[in-house]
Amino acid sequence: MQGGPLHKKYKIYLDHVGVAHVPEDYEERLTEIFPKVFKHLRLFALDPYDLALSKLERNVQRDRDDVMHLARTVPFDLEVLKDRYQKELRWQLGNPEREDLTLRLWIEAIQEERGK
To answer: What is the tally of structural domains in the chain?
Structure first.
């Protein structure tokens, strides 16, 4: 954590993330960031679609903003997003009907922004 021993000694810290559901085969799509920069550390990033879908259940404003930013910069193929949700994530969720609605609202917001 910030201010902890790791941060004081090396000027880095890690934020704890609670349990987040990610699409089933996310490991196959991880991308190494900063390869060969660190001697004893390897960092990986989620694929943009997997990252967006990992935010689906929490769905706070920061998550919605992140998804909209990803949709603009990637830009998302909305069929890939929907397909990955249906095949790899939906079955894991505690309230899939609510998340169906959330995803539908996200997609409508993305489409509305693209229509401008």
So the answer is: 1
| Per-residue pLDDT tens listing for the chain (116 residues) | 788 888 899 888 887 777 789 999 999 999 999 999 989 889 999 999 999 999 999 999 999 999 999 999 999 999 999 999 999 999 999 999 999 999 999 999 999 999 97
Residue 110: Cβ within 10 Å count: 20
Task: Supply 25's token pair.
Answer: 């085969």
Alpha carbon distances (Å) from 94 to 57, 74, 88, 115: 9, 29, 14, 33
The answer to whether 81 and 52 are in contact (CB under 8 A) is yes
Range of the domain at 93: 5-115
45 within 8 A of 33, measured Cβ to Cβ: yes
| Whole-structure pTM value | 0.85
Q: In whole angstroms, what is the distance from residue 116 CA to residue 113 CA?
A: 5
Listed residue (57, 107, 105) closest to 82, CA to CA: 107
